């Protein structure tokens, strides 16, 4: 019983800390990290996609994510 209570409190604490960290990061403004907004980002390729010539006969699904 005591072990279950400790595990439960630990999980709740981790969740609360992660929510607090996310909230703190969003309220200070995402532009503070780079000093610029997304609209001024470079438009050239980052080079993370596979070469289409090399993988011509292969179906590729690409999933990209970014913090919002």
Question: Summary?
Answer:
With 68 residues, the chain is mainly α.
Describe the structure.
The protein is mainly α. It is built from one helix and no strands. The protein is flat, with a radius of gyration of 21 Å.
- Percent of residues in helices comes to 25-40%
Our estimate of the beta-strand percent is under 5%
Radius of gyration, whole Å: 21 Å
Tell me how many strands there are.
0
Sheet of most strands = none
**Low-pLDDT segments:** none
Helix count equals: 1
Oligomer: single chain
Shape: flat
Give the overall pLDDT as a whole number.
83
Question: What's the helix-strand series?
Answer: H
Distance between the termini: 40 Å
SS-based class: mainly alpha
Task: Give me some keywords for this one.
single chain; 68 residues; mainly alpha; flat
Task: Set down the secondary structure blueprint.
Layout: H1 2-27
């Amino acid at each position: 019983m005591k072990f279950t209570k400790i595990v439960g409190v630990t999980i709740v604490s981790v969740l609360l800390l992660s929510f607090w960290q996310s909230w703190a990061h969003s309220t200070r403004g995402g532009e503070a990290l780079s000093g610029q907004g997304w609209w001024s980002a470079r438009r050239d390729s980052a080079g993370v996609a596979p070469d289409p010539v090399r993988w011509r006969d292969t179906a590729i699904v690409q999933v990209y994510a970014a913090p919002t």
